[in-house]
Amino acid sequence: MVSIVETPRDGFQGLSHPIDTKKKIEYINLLLKCGFHTVEVGSFVSPKVIPQMADTAEVIEGLDYANTKSKIAVLVATESGGRQAMTFQQIDQVFFPFSTSPSFLKKNINQSLDQAEHTIDQLQAMCVNNNKQLIVYLSMAFGEAYGDDWSIELLIDWVSRLIEKGLNIFPLSDILGEATPDIIYKVFRSLISKFPDVEFGLHLHSTDYQRMEKVDAAYKAGVRRFDTVINGLGGCPQTGKELVGNLPLQSFLSFCETNNIATAIDMNSLAKASEFPIVS
């Protein structure tokens, strides 16, 4: 069994045109019926930077939680964003986009390594006090594109520090879609061997080239948590490079079917969500 984290937030943020709030709510309500482990419904970030997320509070208030087992997640990048998230009882998990790359951290959330670690400490305290779970993403986890130091040993050091803060779920991101299957396998195998009680996930930005080979490498290394977006929409607009889409849910489900991997997805509900004209 794999856990699938559907991330419409990541899909929406790369679109150039605004999506009507009522349409977002209708679409995410369909996702909540599909059986995803988690649905990332929005983010509390500056609307000047990511205008698509300006209505996250309205979206959360408008969702129907009556018939879903999915956890509800939002992304935050600052303490103030965390404080906003704490006001919503509906939110189960808070995602924070960390990176061992100082250059990418500056581009993505305008923080240094020390500032980001301080933010993590503050967010973890908030989550503990408000019965929520903080999940720290390790972006640029499979190599470096900005001239900063990178190594598996550096990842291990940071994971150790974050575990000491009480964290135990770490999705690793290939933001630029440049990682090879070999390095994905090597990184995950090293981390999972070192921290067998910690949950690692894959947040893959990718083109068609070697996409499923990368998924296969992560699975064979022991990963059982995968982030997806229906139709592969989105990507990170803060890289300063060309936008690379997310792992398409349909491709991942085909991989699971081919390899006899169980999922909790309700295919009838998924068909309705997949047909919804969210980008038209």
Task: Write out key terms for the chains shown.
TIM Barrel, eight-stranded parallel sheet, 17% strand
Report on the structure:
By secondary structure, this protein is of the alpha/beta class. The protein has a single domain (3-275), classed as Alpha-Beta Barrel (TIM Barrel), CATH 3.20.20. The chain is built from eleven helices and eight strands. It has helices at 8-12, 21-31, 56-62, 79-86, 102-109, 113-129, 152-164, 181-194, 211-221, 249-258, 267-275, and strands at 3-6, 38-44, 71-76, 93-99, 133-139, 169-174, 199-204, 225-228. Helix 2 runs antiparallel to helix 11 and helix 8 runs parallel beside helix 9. The longest helix has 17 residues, at 113-129. The radius of gyration is 17 Å and the shape is globular.
What is the terminal-to-terminal distance? 34 Å
Main beta sheet: 8 strands, parallel
Number of helices: 11
Q: Low-confidence stretches at least 5 residues in length (pLDDT < 50)?
A: 236-243
Q: Classify the fold: give the CATH topology.
A: TIM Barrel
- How many individual domains? 1
**How do the helices and strands follow one another from N- to C-terminus?**
EHHEHEHEHHEHEHEHEHH
> What's the oligomerization state?
single chain
Overall shape: it is: globular
The radius of gyration over CA amounts to 17 Å
Query: Which CATH C-level class is it?
Result: Alpha Beta
Can you tell me the CATH architecture? Alpha-Beta Barrel
Strand order of the largest sheet: 5-4-3-2-1-8-7-6
Number of strands: 8
Chart the SSEs and their pairings.
Blueprint lengths: L2 E4 L1 H5 L8 H11 L6 E7 L11 H7 L8 E6 L2 H8 L6 E7 L2 H8 L3 H17 L3 E7 L12 H13 L4 E6 L6 H14 L4 E6 L6 H11 L3 E4 L20 H10 L8 H9 L5
Parallel strand pairs: 1-2, 1-8, 2-3, 3-4, 4-5, 6-7, 7-8
